[in-house]
Amino acid sequence: MQKLHKFVSGFILQVVDWFYPLFSRFMPKQTYRYAACGGFNTLLDIGLFFVAYNYILNKTAVQFYTVTVSPHIASFLLSFLVTFPTGFYLSRYVVFQQTSVTKRTQLARYFLVVFGCILLNYIFLKIFVDSFGWYPTPSKILTTVFVVLFSYFSQKNFTFKAKQLQ
Q1: Counting CB atoms within 10 angstroms of each CB, which of 10, 45, 73, 134 has the fewest?
Q2: Where are the domains of the chain?
Q3: Rounded to the nearest 5°, which phi and psi values hold at 51?
Q4: Phi/psi of residue 97, each to 5°?
Q5: Residue 3 CA neighbour count, 13 Å, CB half
Q6: Sorting pLDDT into bands at 50, 70 and 90, what band is 164?
Q7: What is the DSSP letter of 100?
């Protein structure tokens, strides 16, 4: 399993870093890696949201016992089940390789930040779709802009914080 992990993380790093020279004048490598990995995970999230909303749930609310979950919230939760582990893996092994925090602590902190992202997703989707009456997929895209900004600064300065050299 360790060999597979080394191969996968090494391969992803090679692919991501192959394009870095195009962006090296505009941003540091870590920011570029975050943008590349986060961009991939974000596209995966939006794609899974679209498929879940339109084809799996067929734009229909989901009934859990006495609670009814709107289709756009249920779609968000389904896409989250995939993008949470992929996001942690990419952040831990591609973006923030130099860290002073243990893996267990990182996972706990990552979950806290992601929980904040879930709350932001929920709040913005409720506002955009339920209050403003906007279409769900564009609402998800706009929500993602706010959540990505929050996530990047939280992950960099909290979850995967590196020791300061003195």
Answers
A1: 10
A2: 2-159
A3: -65, -45
A4: -75, -35
A5: 0
A6: low
A7: S
Q: pLDDT tens-digit profile of 68-127?
A: 999 988 998 899 899 989 998 998 888 887 766 788 888 888 889 989 988 998 899 899
Q: Which two tokens stand for residue 57?
A: 């749930």
Amino acid at 117: C
Quick one: 117 exposed, middle or buried, by C-beta within 10 A (0-12, 13-18, 19+)? buried
pLDDT of residue 31: 86
Which two three-digit tokens encode residue 30? 């870590």
Tokens of 137: 């997929």
- Asked if the model's pLDDT at residue 165 lies above 50, the reply is no
Stretch 15-27: mean pLDDT: 94
The one-letter amino acid code at 30 reads Q
C-alpha 15/C-alpha 57 separation (Å) is: 34
Q: Where are the alpha helices (DSSP H) in 26-90?
A: 29-51, 71-90
